[in-house]
């Protein structure tokens, strides 16, 4: 560009010099004047070109800048994309076990969790006690881990037959209570036994994640077994119903007895009334026949008086007669 | 643990009993208990390794009818029945193990029984510790 504009300048200068020279020689020519005019217009055109060139240059600069910015933005986006992808790849997604899955409601799940918490959840102290046991050494895996897991009392009492790892705490069960009471290494702050027993009646009871023998023995199957051993077909046989029926029969019998008793009583009363009536009748009859022996009637005193009066009247009547 | 499931239970149709619902179900009762109750109790008893050992010692686990009954009991692993299990982990695990013939043969050994006891206890504790 410099060369281009320099050429124009040189041409103008040369034309100007030629013109000045020709003017100095007092021999000016139109051709030279024309030449200088041409050169001048060329120069102004060249200057315009320079301006355009400069503008273009600025524009190029700007474009370069914006392209660089865009480049960096693209680079950032790509790198963040790559890191995100890496994150996604390394994120542990929940792996659903193969097999069918079933819909369930949130409420149902919560109520189920609450229901099974008693039968699936060992006491907190037991879980805490098992933690160091698992962390210690491989020898713990060889020892029987948990034959008698028990609840909240943090005392250790290993069974004599099965050596437990010392870190597992177990309260002495009735079977173990005579064994090694000296091993209590309690450093935790705990409530006195009476309080903790009161607050949590299940504490100290061994935990098993399955039903116990006494539960199985006390269940429906055992009672059915008992029935079939007695020669009763359990199908359609309801001991509760039978019991109810027996009770009902008993009640009916008792009601009947009661009724009979009442009837008997009633009959007795009627009999007595009848007797009384008969006696009265007899008395009246005998009184009409003027018998003074009437006063010996076993009646109530006021009634007796009345009878006495009447008998007196009778007597009077008798006397009158 | 002398109680064993009544033999007539096995001959029932392979349709599982209906779970308890609001409307009354008219079905035969066994000693005052519904089939649902009895089967729920039995399938949960299977969670106890000592009971499994007892069943094996009674020669029950080799009877084809009993094996068929065990296969039938697998309906407890599906809704709507699974939510009635109060010992879900060991129950379903032992139920699945009982489908294998080798397990049915081996559970008579007290060693395996003790291993199951240990593993069950450890699982119960570990599971809660991790979560």
Summarize the structure.
Chain A has 321 residues and is mainly alpha-helical. Chain A has ten helices and no strands.
Structure description:
Chain A has 321 residues and is mostly helical. Chain A is built from ten helices and no strands. Chain A is rod-shaped and about 210 Å long. By secondary structure, chain B is an all-alpha fold. The longest helix of chain B is centred in the C-terminal third of the chain and has 21 residues. Chain B starts with 34 loop residues before the first helix and ends with a helix. The N terminus of chain B is likely disordered. Chains A and B meet through helix 3, helix 4, helix 7, helix 8 and helix 9 of A and helix 1, helix 2, helix 4 and helix 6 of B. Chain A: This is Mediator of RNA polymerase II transcription subunit 4. Chain A: Component of the Mediator complex. Chain A: It is found in: Nucleus. Chain A: Keywords: Activator, Nucleus, Transcription, Transcription regulation. Chain A: Belongs to the Mediator complex subunit 4 family. Chain B: Belongs to the Mediator complex subunit 31 family.
Average predicted local confidence, pLDDT of chain B = 80
Briefly note the structural class of the backbone of chain B. mainly alpha
Beta strand % of chain B: under 5%
Helical fraction of chain A: 55-70%
Task: Label the overall shape of chain B.
Answer: globular
| Uncertain residue segments of chain B | 1-12
Number of helices of chain A: 10
Helicity level of chain B: 40-55%
Mean pLDDT of chain A: 74
Intertermini distance of chain B: 35 Å
- Work out the helix count of chain B: 6
SSE string of chain A: HHHHHHHHHH
* Assembly state of the chains shown: heterodimer
Q: In angstroms, what separates the terminal alpha carbons of chain A?
A: 186 Å
Described by strand count, sense and barrel closure, the largest sheet of chain B is: none
Largest interface: A-B, 48 and 46 residues
Task: Write the topology of this structure.
The complex is a heterodimer of chains A (321) and B (131).
Chain A: H1 2-24, H2 30-90, H3 106-120, H4 124-135, H5 139-142, H6 193-199, H7 213-217, H8 220-229, H9 239-288, H10 301-320
Helix pairs in contact in A: 1-2
Chain B: H1 35-45, H2 49-57, H3 64-72, H4 88-97, H5 101-106, H6 110-130
Helix pairs in contact in B: 2-6
